[in-house]
Amino acid sequence: MVARTQENKAKVVLAEASVPAAVAEAFRNRKMGILEFYELKNIQADTQMRTMIAGGNGDQIDDGRVSP
């Protein structure tokens, strides 16, 4: 059971690593504008705030930094 949990966490980390590249690609292809990007960040911040209020530690949410 522990091994499966670690395997799933590794899959999540790999999937999260591809998000900044996908956002950059969306900007390049004009599929996403700056307003949509800010809306996405606002939703992430709201989710993190609600997680913290509910007693979670907020580790589930990306810190918002986009790597070059």
Molecular structure report:
With 68 residues, the protein is mainly α. It has one domain (2-53). Helices cover 68% and strands 0% of the residues. It is built from three helices and no strands. The mean pLDDT is 86.
Structural class: mainly alpha
Number of domains: 1
Gyration radius (Cα, Å) is 15 Å
Largest sheet properties: none
Instruction: Extract low-pLDDT stretches.
Output: none
What order do the SSEs take from the amino end to the carboxyl end, as H and E? HHH
* Mean pLDDT score: 86
User: What proportion strand?
Assistant: under 5%
> What's the end-to-end separation, in Å?
36 Å
User: How many DSSP helices?
Assistant: 3
| Coarse morphology | flat
Number of DSSP strands? 0
Short description:
With 68 residues, the chain is mainly α. It has three helices and no strands.
Q: What's the helix and strand layout?
A:
Elements lengths: L1 H16 L1 H10 L5 H20 L15
Which features characterize this protein?
3 helices; flat
